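[Automated response] Your request has been received and processed.

Submitted sequence:
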Amino acid sequence: MTTPKIAVVTGANRGLGFEISRQLAKKGYQVILTSRDEAKGKAAAEKLQSEGLDVIYYHLDVTSDESSQKLAEFINQQFGRLDVLVNNAGIYIDRNSVFDTQIDTLQETMETNVYGVLRVTQALIPLMKKQNYGRIVNVSSGAGQLSDMQGGLPGYRISKAALNALTRIFASELQGTNILVNSVCPGWVKTDMGGSNAPLTPEQGVDTIVWLATLVDDSPTGKFFRNRKPIAW
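Generated structure:
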């Protein structure tokens, strides 16, 4: 019997994270669904379990070093390794012009969208290094694409541009390993964050994310993808 690969999805109690968890579990992965809201996270995991999927819940606050390390310890004790990390947790709390935005709004956004990804990845990378295998997917946005940078949403845009930079740094420092790190723009998706007017369903939105999470060996790393194709940073 083949041992299932182990995947962690952050911010997974709803929206893209929930659907990523569902699709990876459908592919036979043991999914650890994480979220800051414990009640909502447990309910989400139970919903997927009711669909016959191999999903468990673990509480994770990406803004906490202690919480990130506890997740790493849990995975090491239960499974001894980690195969996939999808850094999906993110916030979108600014709607203002750059001239009106507050520094504390930018700081709060960066804490989750960038520093959260950094601390969780730092905590979990050793579990990938011990087996020289890993797939890390950072859920970014076209809003952070420097080649098409526009006005508005400064905190969100800056955080996603920084996340793309972090992706390239991790990929460069992991060069020569079988740990692949990529960013992805899922597009405008019908979620609580995306709103009801978005053209894509959650299943459509996670397609490239799940594809990157399940890349075969010798696939690209340090790239930014949309619709399964690399795009300009």
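Summary generated for your ticket: The mean pLDDT is 96. The first helix runs from residue 15 to 26.
If you did not submit this request, please reply to this message.
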